[in-house]
Amino acid sequence: MQITDVSQLIIFYNLFHIAGDNIKPFTPEQAKEIVMSLQKPAVFCNMAFDWPVRHWSVSYLANLCRGKRILFRIGTKDMGTVPLFETKCSYVEATLEEFLAWIGSQPSHSCGPFKGYDLSKYWTYADYKYIARLFEDKPEHFQDLVWSDFGFEGRNGRDSTLWIGSRGANTPCHLDSYGCNLVLQVQGSPVSSSRIGSLGLRKRWYLYPPEDSSLLYPTRVPYEESSVFSQVNVVNPDLRRYPRFKKAQAHVITLDPGQVLFVPRHWWHYVESIDPITVSVNSWIELDADHEARVEEAITRTLICAIKSAETPDESDSWLNPTEVEVTSHETNLQYLNEAVSAYLEHQKTSRSEHRTRGSHDTEDILQDPCKKRKIQVNPEPNPCESHLTGIKTKNFEKIPFGSNLLQVLPQSQGTCVPETAEHSSQGLFSENEGRFGKLHNAGNTFGQGSDPRASADQKDQDLSANSPQTIISTNDLLDCVLHPQVASLMAHLLLERASF
């Protein structure tokens, strides 16, 4: 067989060299046990060397989707210290052929919608593309992804999403409210044979543990169901505005082709393409704990839509993420909330019954639902993925088998790191916006320090009247407190307690 395409050569090299004796390091049962035991991110190696999806270079996909227009997000590479949220990006519809022409800067080809964007100043991202929709006319390609190798039987491309980006393309730092995540970095291809040294391969991940949430200044503006964003640009932070971020502990990994990253539940992550072209696929695996998370998300949707809808519209305030089609009505949101509460209570009832029947101590159950952003539906149709819970009987590894086939994602050494203190108490919660509220915040700290409370109150009044800004607290500031993940969790607990009577 004659190989004339450089990308074919790379694929064959990886298939035969990396695979070695073609025996995978973990059986599906072992891989699933590891995933269910891991509390921190890790990288699986040599588990996907024979997956057909490894052929999905952009050139291959462009041929497969010839003429099909998809939505690309475009951002500037020079964004300073402010996160570039999706509400601040530009959007164009284009084909993958036009994307390749833009990346390759081939003057003989039309770059179409990209021609107004200088490659040295902008990046573009075809992100969050449901493979079930992209290949709805070619369902045979769903089998190119074999998540059953990780113990999730029947899970394939129908349950996955595709991401194609240029150098610098990124996802703002956020956490996913639901489930855990498996991400495969796909073998890319060179833009041309003359640029073999610039293969489109890698992405860099910055991950932060759930206990660092208060250090990342969480916000629900812009609002997107299931995503809590950080107000910090984690790769170029403004430490004067967000001083506590210097205590956050980044876990950094550069994901290479063929590697599968496991992102545990509620781990924050910022993802950036570091090569000219990157292709990756992922699948969100919904967990048993997501029943309560859906109640929290329904509460969040109800409150943010009610409060922002009551506010005088401001064209500069793009609070609804482009992934959200519309602002749902209060009546609809209450229906979502009631459905979420009912589903949670029914799940609790079923779980207690199953537990009594099994009489065992299985690990946390998994729901076989691929969609990260599946909203609580009103009068939903039966979903075969939710008809039952799949109990995982595991040895619950005493020691995770880390080594050449399972890599730890270790904390990055930070010279600015300050020893951890009791940050996650109510004090940490209510000092989220330190330095943002001017005299109001500072005056509040003088109370109860051994002085006369009346004198302190008088002094506060003088301070506020002498030098008060016109607007001290905005609607978004209020929402950052009201919809803080810890507050949403507390509200969900109280609501479910009330509903269970």
Automatic annotation (TrEMBL):
Biased composition (Basic and acidic residues): 349-364
Subcellular location(s) per record: Cytoplasm
Positions of the JmjC domain: 123-300
Domain of life: Eukaryota
Keyword Transcription regulation (UniProt): no
Positions of the UniProt region annotated as Disordered: 349-368, 438-467
Annotated keywords: Cytoplasm
Keyword Cytoplasm: yes
Signal peptide: none
Function: May play a role in cellular stress response.
Protein name as annotated: JmjC domain-containing protein
Organism: Phrynosoma platyrhinos
